């Protein structure tokens, strides 16, 4: 797994200890393709390795972010989540303000527009994140008036 090599090299470069526990956490993180909270990852790791503590998972996630394997994201609900970076296409998010669901979206037209804007203003891009907030299809259905009912 390429990510394990990236992480091992990162730890070595920082003169940090490579450990089995960190490998367990990395493995669990890589096998869950969703935006995870620390608590969700800790729960997943504990199923196989009950001795791993919450603080170890938290610190390892911070190291995974520093290594470029994942990034921290925060939506308006105040919850910090972590998502995969390595070998994952850049994407933006649509976030439902009713149920909290979020959807990853990729749109080449939006990306080109962002690049043109940065170029026009002489802005040197490093990274960006776009989050669009609204009401998802399912929540719209739940709140729409029933067809054919009298008012």
Structure description:
There is one protein chain. The chain has 151 residues and is α+β, with helices and mostly antiparallel strands. It has two domains: 1-88, Orthogonal Bundle (Arc Repressor Mutant, subunit A), CATH 1.10.10; 90-144, 2-Layer Sandwich (Dna Ligase, domain 1). 45% of the residues lie in helices and 15% in strands. The protein is built from six helices and five strands; from the N terminus they run ααααββββαβα. Strands 4-3-5 form a three-stranded mixed beta sheet, with no helix packed on it. Strands 1-2 form a two-stranded antiparallel sheet. Helix 2 (20-30) packs across helix 4 and helix 3 packs across helix 4 (54-67). The longest helix has 14 residues, at 54-67. The protein starts with a helix and ends in an 8-residue tail after the last helix.
